[in-house]
């Protein structure tokens, strides 16, 4: 069942993550309430300032689609507890405060653009009066944490939590992906985190399976589900659970902050993003690239530019990404391989001078072309015995296919050579 559920996901390979909430107003990272230890009674005043007047879900969906993403995930509620949907569980929500059911707008827009629908939901809730002060809570350094927790009842919070998940699972039509966040039981500075039992994670997962059986659920309930979600790093090997390969998705920001961070200009280059995408697919994973819309709800020009550049690359190279996955061949250094059917895609991170030696492909290549312009790439298999004498010591091994590349690197984020493979002889 999991494999079927994941079919569209492993085909899409690339998604857009959208972090939007009250934290977009201070614009100092979505953990600003934690970092600056802002009391919930003070932080909630941002709700009076919440004005998503430029939030255009259709425009965001179009940006995602044009970037080559096959799905997109919106934060319905982040750790701050502010809900972007029409919830009956609390007035701390976008309908009550701004007259907008942004989750409704989101799901409608994605479906209209033919994208798969993802929702992020934070299990943490720093606003709820029964959510116990723990290692991540903004009041973790309060003089009397025990006193704060004395009247808090996590059983009441679990009722609230389950009611909210149920609203999302029943009120917005078929969902394709629910990204829960996050479960970290470990103690820090004498305060516990939250364990799966704090959420009754098994019951939440069972609810998801009952109400949305085709929907993908991630691993952040703290119990195994459909995929693993490494965050803000790129895995260096395929991911396995109990020795079996698992689906995974690396979630990444463009500048280290998930929420809009006005003064953080430390952006990843589009080339780096494309390398992360190709590198993820080469190891059997997906990339979920984040954008944090401004307080008014629009994607900032700087972020739109990055997604636009990735889209420009995907426009010519999506065959090497969508529906592609790892290959059994071992690439040389400075190169990653993705494979789709009889096509092997050579993503050249370090452009060589004239020749690129691909070991282990002897007798397997029928044709080679640069993907960006479709131009033929000539290649040869030269057994070492026929190599020039000064290329034999520690030169290419038998079975190496040598591509003759233009000295000038193609002007694309990552040049890709598409090899059409012939059957092993
Ligand atoms: C971490 C952060 C959270 C962010 C999430 C994205 O859990 O706490 O702010 O939304 O990663 O995966």
Q: What do you see in this structure?
A:
There is one protein chain. The strands form 4 sheets. The protein has a 7-stranded parallel beta sheet with strand order 5-4-3-2-1-9-8. The chain has a 4-stranded antiparallel beta sheet with strand order 10-11-16-13, with helices on one face. The protein has a 3-stranded antiparallel beta sheet with strand order 12-15-14, with no helix packed on it. It has 13 helices and 16 strands. With 425 residues, the chain is an alpha/beta fold. Helix 12 links the parallel strand 8 and strand 9. It binds alpha-D-glucopyranose (GLC). Alpha-D-glucopyranose is lined by residues 19, 30-31, 181-182, 231, 251, 258.
Briefly summarize what is shown.
The chain has 425 residues and is of the alpha/beta class.
Sheet of most strands: 7 strands, parallel
CA radius of gyration: 24 Å
Q: What is the CATH architecture term of the largest domain?
A: Alpha-Beta Barrel
Helix percent band? 25-40%
Number of helices: 13
Write out the CATH superfamily name of the largest domain. Glycosidases
Number of separate strands: 16
Shape estimate: elongated
Widest sheet: strand order? 5-4-3-2-1-9-8
Approximate strand percentage: 15-25%
> What compounds are bound to the protein?
alpha-D-glucopyranose
How far apart the termini lie comes to 36 Å
Order of helices and strands: HHEHHHEHHEHHEHHEEEEHEHEEEEEEE
Number of domains: 2
| CATH class category of the largest domain | Alpha Beta
